């Protein structure tokens, strides 16, 4: 089975989201590394990544959809849906961090094996892993919300053939 990336909105959304995740995790890691509280770091990283995601989703993933809406309206809808999913992300982030810190051996494993990438202790790595888990959970909800609300297909200009 061959999948055409040019035609699959979900795959395009995943590609854009992949880059957004890289932006999010990079910003989040930098913020946490410099002592910003993990929730504030997550919020700042979110704003940066979601703005990037909106731009690329609007010009590539959902290029010819919701043309009757202004860019500003689509941006605010995108931000609103993404904000709801941020709540999901923060809940999962907090639960994951609590769980991983309870079982610190996972963070110790990462600290011992990934120290060549980043300096950090077990708690630091648990924060990064928890952010990735939270993003993963929010991705599907984010796609569905934006496909059916922000970039809802225009039905105003279509007609039914007899």
From TrEMBL:
One of its GO terms (biological process) is polysaccharide biosynthetic process. InterPro entries: GtrA_CellWall_Glycosyl, GtrA_DPMS_TM. GO terms for cellular component: plasma membrane. The chain crosses the membrane at residues 9-31, 37-56, 76-100, 124-144. It is found in: Membrane. Residues 12-151 form the GtrA/DPMS transmembrane domain. Keywords: Membrane, Transmembrane, Transmembrane helix. It is a multi-pass membrane protein. Belongs to the GtrA family. This is Putative flippase GtrA (Transmembrane translocase of bactoprenol-linked glucose).
